[in-house]
Amino acid sequence: MNDDSKTLKKLDTLIRHTRQNTLMTERLLAHQVFQSLPDDKTVTFPHRGETIRFHVPDGWLDAVQRIIMLNRTFYEAALLERVRERVSPGTTFVDAGANIGNHTVYFLKLCRAAHVHAFEPMPHMQAILQRNADLNGTDRVTVHPFGLGATASTADVEIFNPANLGSTTLRASLNAGTDGAIPIRPLDAFDLQDVGFIKIDVEGMQDAVLSGARDTIARCKPDLVIEAFQRGDEREKTEAVLADMGYRVDEIIGHNIWAVPA
């Protein structure tokens, strides 16, 4: 091994150790802040003149809840601000992969949504999502306890990381009657009217969600924001699905495609 290779190896080791130490420090801080929260584990903060409340029962560990708890702001705040700038008040939103309701609450309070239909398949997150809807105006939020997909079916959990609950990944069940299977429904089955905006964050299942929402999208022509990573051909495949549906990519925001009718 030459000197340059040895130096690069040392730098790589240093970077990995620094990242580990930073994460440990952040988690220690998060645990201390979490312990100082009231018994209901709710944080309250102002945002653009609104009072925002979030129940964060896993704030010491889960990435999204930790960001909200430590920073007293929304997760993916820059993306959400772009939504506020572009989407008119009074719009009906669909939040596919709603997790604990970070985006749902923003759509409700800051985008002045007429209604938010929040879809979350995991029971633990469903309960937190409903609690956060209750804390921030539940009369304009409907929590749907389903994952969205191409057809009515079931799925099982393939990847689960308690330190990042939003990264939970599902796979189609081999046996629809499997105990604990997660119910999957196409968005078209809900016959939603006047949908103006759909956000999809479903850990690689976005093409199936789009397939099951074709009628709704064709009828309502909403703006779409879809998480689609540039890993392999994931983003290219999603863009091809969108083109087939008569949509074009209008903007790329981080890992998200903003698509509009062509």
Walk me through this protein's architecture.
The chain has 262 residues and is of the alpha/beta class. It folds into two domains: 1-36; 41-261, Rossmann fold (3-Layer(aba) Sandwich), CATH 3.40.50.150. It has helices spanning 3-36, 63-71, 77-86, 102-109, 123-136, 206-211, 214-220, 234-244; strands at 42-47, 50-55, 92-96, 115-119, 141-144, 147-148, 153-159, 169-172, 182-185, 195-200, 223-227, 247-253, 256-261. The strands form three sheets. A seven-stranded mixed beta sheet has the order 5-4-3-10-11-13-12, sandwiched between helices. Strands 6-9-7-8 form a four-stranded mixed beta sheet, with no helix packed on it. Helix 4 (102-109) links the parallel strand 3 and strand 4. It starts with a helix and ends with a strand.
Summarize this entry quickly:
InterPro entries: FkbM_mtfrase, SAM-dependent_MTase, SAM-dependent_MTases_sf. With 262 residues, the protein is of the alpha/beta class. The protein is built from eight helices and 13 strands.
Oligomer, anyone?
single chain
Spans of at least 5 consecutive residues whose pLDDT stays below 50 are none
Approximate strand percentage: 25-35%
- Structural class of the helices, strands and pairings? alpha/beta
Shape: globular
In CATH terms, the superfamily of the largest domain is Vaccinia Virus protein VP39
Number of helix segments?
Answer: 8
